[in-house]
Amino acid sequence: VVLPFVPIRPALAEIGRVLRSGGELWALVHPPRRTWRSLRAATQARDTRQMLHQSYVLANGSLFHIAGEVVPSPASGRYESFQTAHGMIRELQRAGLSNVIVQRARHHTVLTAVKR
Fold it and tell me: Which of 28, 57, 59, 110 has the highest count of CB atoms within 10 angstroms of its CB?
């Protein structure tokens, strides 16, 4: 559940390093629709701080989808992003994992993968 709140590429590299061959990863990540819902709720509530934060999360998740990178929030220095199946599969494979299975749920996405 931590991946949406950390630099994902280095975290997955470390997971890939410590898993033994045949070891399994199970992770929960945040899909884009979660961020859109949060942004819409903040907008309806006229919560400017939350609107700005969710806009950052939206931009950071888009960056992750395109480039596999995330950046810390300029306001807090913390990380948060959404993750697409495409981006996660790419980064899991980069970390030496395969057989990725993506299961979508309402508020999160479950990913499983195996170390080659």
Answer: 57
Under 8 Å between Cβ of 92 and 70 = no
Percent of the residues in the chain that have a pLDDT greater than 70, as a whole number: 100
pLDDT in tens, 14-71: 999 999 999 999 999 999 999 999 999 999 999 999 999 999 999 999 999 999 999 9
| CA distances from residue 62 to 17, 46, 93, 98 in whole angstroms, order as listed | 26, 24, 19, 23
Answer for the pair 80, 73: CB distance below 8 angstroms, yes or no. Answer: yes
At residue 116's C-alpha, the angle toward residues 25 and 87, to 5°, is 60
Q: What is the CA radius of gyration of the chain?
A: 15
